[in-house]
Hints:
alpha+beta, two-stranded antiparallel ribbon
Amino acid sequence: xxxxxxxxxxxxxxxxxxxxxxxxxxxxxxxxxxxxxxxxxxxxxxxxxxxxxxxxxxxxxxxx
Length: 64
């Protein structure tokens, strides 16, 4: 990864390091993203999730 992006990607670690309740991965990612955006006074963020079996999903969030 390019050094200029190091402070922007997984700023607080990924799913393996943070953990999550079974069945709540998406909610945990979304709530964490919203809190980080507000803490860092940012407007937009991207959450991505590997579902397994070759599937994945992504969500772009914009906070007021």
